[in-house]
Every structure is written in C-alpha cells, then in structure tokens.
Amino acid sequence: MAKIFIQNLKVFGILGIHAHEQRKKQEIRVSVEIKTDIKEAAKGDDVNKTIDYSGLSDDIIQFIDDSNYGTIEALITALADRILENEKINSVWLKIEKPNAVPQADSVGVEIKRSK
Fold first, then answer.
1. CA distance linking residue 94 with residue 110, whole number of Å
2. Which of 41, 46, 92, 106 has a CA 20 to 30 Å removed from the CA of 54?
3. Range of the domain at 109
4. With contact defined as beta carbons under 8 Å apart, do 72 and 40 qualify?
5. Beta bridge partners of 92
6. In 3-state terms, what secondary structure has residue 59?
7. What does the radius of gyration of the chain's CA atoms come to, in whole angstroms?
8. What pLDDT, on the 0 to 100 scale, is given for residue 21?
9. What is the pLDDT along the chain (116 residues), one digit of tens a residue?
10. Cβ partners under 8 Å of residue 17, min gap 6
C-alpha cells in the first residue's frame, strides 16, 4: 500500500453558518492522503493504474464548488464518502481548514480518517 497526498489545496466555496459566509465563496484549504496499491502503476509506468493526483484535485475542487454546507463537519464527511467511491482507494485522511474564519488564528478546521 502506498500513500498519495495533496497538501493545502486552495479551493473557493460556500461554507459557513453565518449569512455573510453563505453569500460569497471563501478560501477553503484541503489536504488529503489516500492509500492505494501502486504496484501495477509502477511496473507499467501507467497513471491509469493508480490515482492521478491531478484528477483527484479536480474532483475535490468541483465537489466543493458545487456544494453549500454550513459546517466543516458536514462537508468533510460528504467529501470523504465521495473520495471512497473510487474502487482503487482503500482509505482516506482529510483535513479541511478555513483560514479566515477566526481573525486571531491562522486557520480552523477538522480532520477525519475513513476506510472501506
């Protein structure tokens, strides 16, 4: 098993419980680690036999762009479920941060780990 990761993917989406957060997209940072078997991809040097991190990034961006959640907890759970729909992925660790939610903090967020 190998770990494929993306750190601090900057995405813009609707996320928050306050009225101003529901009107305008804000920066959301996503870090993700997935576990998958890379043996066949390595043997054949074939990206189609692994998880393409560019495609995974695009999926995360699209998912958040299409979503509208009040809490990070709801968003991160839905995103983890979406990622685990891929049959090549055995487990996922996610961290979602809102860097501008609390002025006195660099960011706030939630981390989860899910597996099949």
1. 8
2. 106
3. 2-115
4. no
5. 34, 114
6. helix
7. 15
8. 81
9. 899 999 999 999 999 888 888 888 999 999 999 999 999 999 999 998 999 999 999 999 999 999 999 999 999 999 999 999 999 999 999 999 999 888 899 999 999 999 99
10. 70, 71
Q: How far apart are CA 21 and CA 7, in angstroms?
A: 24
Contacts of 19 (CB under 8 A, 6+ apart): none
CA distance 17 to 22: 7
CA distance 47 to 49: 5
Q: Is the pTM of this model over 0.90?
A: yes
Extended beta strands in 16-107, E state = 26-36, 68-69, 91-98
**pLDDT of the residue at 60:** 98
H-helix or E-strand containing 43?
helix 39-44
Instruction: Give the integer Cα–Cα distance in Å for 53 and 32.
Output: 10
Distance of alpha carbon 45 from alpha carbon 48, whole angstroms: 9
Determine contact, residues 27/99, Cβ cutoff 8 Å. Answer: yes
**Residue 6's CATH number:** 3.30.1130.10
